[in-house]
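Researcher: Quick sanity check before group meeting.
Model: Go ahead. Protein one:
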Amino acid sequence: MVEAPATPFLTAAEVDELCAPLTQRHAQMRHLCHLLDVDSLPRRPDGLPLVGRKMIEERLNRKGSYKAPAGFNWSK
């Protein structure tokens, strides 16, 4: 099986797969912003959020910097 060269950004099908069952582009953008812990993402004219492959791979594989969510610290 021959794979197509990877683009620097996720394709529409990959964004749809990550955000299933969300179908509206703005809802997908909000979901990805929450998932990646960013304030906003750039968008294409059709509304598809532009997410870099490196950014999503680091975040999903926990290789990038990770900060703990704010809240109670129950450990003594």
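Researcher: Fine. The other one?
Model: Protein two, sequence then structure:
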Amino acid sequence: MADTTFTLAEFPGVTFTVLVGSGGLPGLPSNSMRIIGTIPNPWYEPDYNYGVDPSGHTEVTDPWKRHTELLEVTNIGLIGPAGPPVPTTTPPPALPAPDTVEEPTDG
């Protein structure tokens, strides 16, 4: 299944991506689902040379994350159902209603 992306007017600039399955991540079951929200990094500069960074930043320590194109702003994970919430077999018929017997009354 291909990833699904969508946007919401309530969160301008954020693109949400729905990932279904483990995605190769260890520990995630195949019925998992993640919704990840990302925004474009305004400081993205893929050719930035950290070897000449005046502050000594590296790809790991750079607070502007200049080598990261999309910044993750939300990450929500869910585990989907492993099966239907009810049995798939037809339920048995109801028992017939008991016969009512009228009891004698005094009077």
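Researcher: One line on it for the slide.
Model: The chain has one domain: 4-79.
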